[in-house]
Fold this protein.
Amino acid sequence: MLTNCPRCGFSQPKDQYCPQCGVDMLSYKPKAEPLVKRILQSGLFQISFLIVIAVLLGLYIIRSDQPQKWVQKITHFQGVTKPAGRAANIQNNNQSSLKSNNEEVTSENELQDLKNQEISIPVAPAQALITNSVPASGNVALVAKSADTIIESTSSSFRLTYAEVSRENLAKWINDSSNAGLYQNLQEYSAGILTDFRKRSDTMMTVLLNTNKKLSLGQSETVLSGLITEDASSQMLGLVSAIEYRTNENGVLHGSILVSRNNRQVRENFPAEYDLPRGAVFFLIGALKSNSFMNEKTRLTMPPFQILRSPDFMTQKTEFVIILEPEYK
């Protein structure tokens, strides 16, 4: 009858001593394995570990499969969206002035899957400033929260301002809006919200065009600035700002604005959404640039296109900014 040595495992006829290692097989007691090793080798532990891994992997897959919206409403709890591209260049050009005030400029954060949406603009064969109503849609979503409770109304007045703003002041706006988590930057344009705008000391600007619109809930109004070409195409050349007023929740006005820059061959759209409490304004940068409408510069003499003849704007010392501000009584 063969037996195995409890120490070295050598197989031999039954005897007291192992001819391989010499151990007394009758009195030899192997050392107990460490507790950790026994736990790791336990079948129950291995099954439990696999179950935990499977659960975590399933949660990860579920979260990864959720559709990622490129537009999100920004709240103070979601942190700062960091400016990039054009807005970052504004800040870089003003680093010397910003450093003196110990203001920090945030770094780049790109929003993905941007799709600007075009609108149909009804036109008439006449040259002038035209006003009409069209639906608007927004892509940039910005939300500012307020503790103020305001009586809700079915209509609200909005002031739309086209302004020329110095890069120094604009860099401060961008910095403060970013720090509040209320600024978003896209490849061609950027938008933000400034709270307590009228209490700021850096609101000096050159007003190019001021328009007041009273909108009811669900209503939209469009301001067209430019002219109609006299050729057979009868194209609209200029800027279109379509403002939509959607809801008023506890005094916070929610809506959208769609700005379109219509050149002779190309229409570029700059859509955004906003939530504005009392005292807050929405601002948009990049709808009009120094190289826009160069071929029609002499024909676009109406506001706000006088900025195209501004030396500071053409040398990039100032920027064209669109400001939307609710008017509270």
